[in-house]
Amino acid sequence: MSDPAAPTHYPGLLAEIRQRIQTAQTRAMLGVNAELIRLYWEIGQMLDARQHSEGWGAAVIPRLARDIRNELPEVKGFSERNIKRMLAFYREYAGLKWLPQAAAGTGQKVPQAVAQIELAEKVPQAVALFSSDVLLALPWGHHLLLMEKLKDAATRHWYMQAMLANGWSRNMLQMQIESAAHARHGKATSNFALRLPPP
User: Fold this and answer.
1) What is the pTM of this model?
2) Beta bridge partners of 72
3) 69-85 tens-digit pLDDT
């Protein structure tokens, strides 16, 4: 039963507002994800630099995880294991150069997080495959799965592109990797073409 007080086009208005709310929520989640990926890369960079310049060993990471947990108990994601993963993530994509953000409240226009990344002038060839916007678009769990399962940069890049194009969850991504979807993808077209009847 319709509400007599509702205007004629009310359902359309409600649907449009609902869509805008959902779009804004999605953008906010993607923005948070991009900042998290950037933060993890920067932490990995800091650890890598200290290990090289000051000779820090692996014993620093457990202490760092414990101290972060004690000083910021509400902050999650900084276990010893995850901090080691941040270091590995940085080392996988060390050729990226992240531009600093403008200070909040300065009134300056700040580009989206995706637009704030540049590739360093001399980039290792494997890193050159990965655009910063793709790296920022992937959730952390997807990155961990890709780094663990795929050592070949070109293959990892293929899965990143396919995941973004198809909206794969982490479980779906794992299934695609385990079934070697990248190997099947190139063959599917050629096999189909071979079976077509002659014109």
Assistant:
1) 0.68
2) none
3) 999 999 899 999 999 99
